[in-house]
């Protein structure tokens, strides 16, 4: 980690030479004025990375907050702004159109980072749902991956994006991509936390100069049956699906309550969230916690003026079993019908936990 250690200005170097801030604000499941206020609050507390995606349905709100910031003391080059290509867009012309839509909604002329949201093309689903697929569909996508990545590389040539990367790619998918990529992905943004460390993936990416970023460092909110719109929309390409923001139950609660996490937090007089985020930084990954609560946004960035001891580090690296909350990894008795975790694993308490209206922070 580079920069002045102990300050929010710390960063990691990408293979492009660009600096990615060590912590950023994730914007999944925040919408409307809550999203606008969250981004404004984050910027005021020193966040300089904002992670977006077209499918989150709130890029126009993020753009509103950015516009206000740019009218003040911040400049466009002060902010590292990322967005993602949604799964259904796999033709070259649609990929270019997709990034142009995001640029317009965000009110900027370029993105610092543009990611393939998932390694597979799919029918529309939630922005974080792994695309449903069969083995044959996956093989078909591998044939299309070369064309898709070439189009992504073209976005760099056009100056629409400064760097390109992937999200939710596993080791094999990274290796497949590197067989033909002219531009090595700058980032692989994946689920990472002490309950799902993905040690081999992190090792492989680092060995190939790919920075790893944690999009769910505190766990994943799992959608409930109710829904509520949280965005004002923004421009779409005709036929582009939209999502609504749904009230959720949190599946990160039990992780934060685990005794080893609580003990370390008490020793440092920090929150469990800060302990887990600090763990992410110390293993060389940037972290992207989501929140719309000002106090949580403020405390989440207070992770630079202290560190975990070797013993504390080792204890967090020994948490078992490892649980992938979504995606292609093994699940801890995950129920596809209820969307909740149950069984004997460390996240079983989520079955009994009901969040309030702002729980998906």
List the SSEs and their pairings.
Blueprint: E1 11-13, E2 19-21, E3 25-26, H1 32-44, E4 49-51, H2 59-70, E5 80-85, H3 92-106, E6 113-116, H4 135-157, E7 164-167, H5 171-178, E8 187-190, H6 199-207, E9 211-214, E10 221-223, E11 248-250, H7 253-257, H8 259-268, H9 272-282, E12 286-287, H10 294-300, H11 310-316
Helix pairs in contact: 1-2, 2-3, 3-4, 8-9
Give a short synopsis of this structure.
α1 packs parallel to α2, α2 packs across α3 and α8 packs across α9. By secondary structure, this protein is α/β, with parallel strands linked by helices.
Question: What would you call the quaternary organization?
Answer: single chain
Backbone structural class? alpha/beta
Tell me the radius of gyration.
19 Å
For the biggest sheet, the summary is: 8 strands, parallel
Average residue-wise pLDDT: 78
Total DSSP helices: 11
Tell me the total number of β-strands. 12
Low-pLDDT sequence parts:
122-129, 221-251, 328-361
Residues in helices, as a percent range: 25-40%
Strand arrangement across the biggest beta sheet: 3-4-5-6-7-8-9-12
Strand-residue fraction? 5-15%
Q: What global shape is seen?
A: globular
Q: What sequence of helices (H) and strands (E) makes up the elements?
A: EEEHEHEHEHEHEHEEEHHHEHH
Terminal Cα span? 26 Å
Describe this protein's structure.
- The chain is α/β, with parallel strands linked by helices.
- 33% of the residues lie in helices and 11% in strands.
- The protein is built from 11 helices and 12 strands.
- The strands form 3 sheets. The chain has an 8-stranded parallel beta sheet. Strands 1-2 form a two-stranded antiparallel sheet. A two-stranded antiparallel sheet has the order 10-11.
- Helix 2 packs across helix 3 and helix 3 crosses helix 4 (135-157).
- The longest helix is centred in the middle third of the chain and has 23 residues, at 135-157.
- The radius of gyration is 19 Å and the shape is globular.
- The model is unreliable at 122-129, 221-251 and 328-361 (pLDDT under 50).
């Amino acid at each position: 980690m580079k920069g002045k250690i102990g300050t929010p200005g710390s960063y990691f170097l990408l293979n492009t030479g660009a600096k990615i801030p060590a912590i950023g604000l994730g914007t999944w499941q925040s919408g409307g004025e809550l999203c606008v206020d969250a981004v404004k609050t984050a910027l005021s507390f020193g966040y300089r990375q904002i992670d977006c995606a077209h499918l989150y349905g709130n890029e126009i709100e993020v753009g509103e907050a950015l516009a206000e910031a740019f009218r003040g003391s911040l400049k466009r080059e002060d902010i590292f702004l990322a967005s993602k290509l949604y799964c259904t867009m796999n033709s070259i012309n649609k990929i270019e159109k997709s990034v142009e839509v995001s640029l317009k909604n965000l009110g900027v002329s370029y993105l610092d980072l543009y990611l393939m949201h998932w390694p597979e093309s799919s029918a529309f689903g939630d922005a974080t749902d792994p695309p449903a697929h069969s083995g044959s569909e996956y093989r078909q996508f591998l044939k299309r991956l070369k064309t898709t990545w070439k189009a992504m590389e073209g976005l760099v040539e056009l100056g629409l994006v400064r760097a390109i990367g992937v999200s939710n790619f596993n080791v094999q998918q990274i290796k497949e991509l590197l067989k033909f990529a002219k531009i090595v992905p700058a980032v692989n943004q994946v689920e990472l936390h002490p309950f799902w460390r993905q040690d081999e993936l992190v090792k492989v990416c680092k060995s190939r100069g790919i920075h790893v970023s944690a999009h769910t460092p505190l766990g994943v909110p799992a959608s409930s049956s109710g829904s509520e719109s949280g965005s004002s929309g923004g421009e779409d390409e005709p036929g582009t699906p939209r999502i609504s923001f749904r009230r959720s139950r949190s599946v990160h609660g039990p992780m934060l309550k685990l005794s080893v996490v609580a003990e370390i937090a008490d020793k440092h007089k920090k929150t469990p969230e800060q302990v887990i985020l600090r763990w992410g930084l110390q293993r060389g990954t940037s972290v992207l916690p989501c929140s719309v609560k000002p106090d949580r946004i403020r405390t989440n960035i207070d992770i630079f003026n202290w560190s975990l001891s070797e013993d504390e580090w080792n204890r967090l690296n020994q948490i078992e079993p490892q649980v992938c909350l979504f995606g292609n990894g093994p699940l801890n008795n995950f129920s596809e019908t209820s969307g909740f975790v149950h069984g004997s694993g460390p996240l079983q308490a989520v079955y009994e936990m009901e969040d309030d209206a702002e729980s998906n922070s």
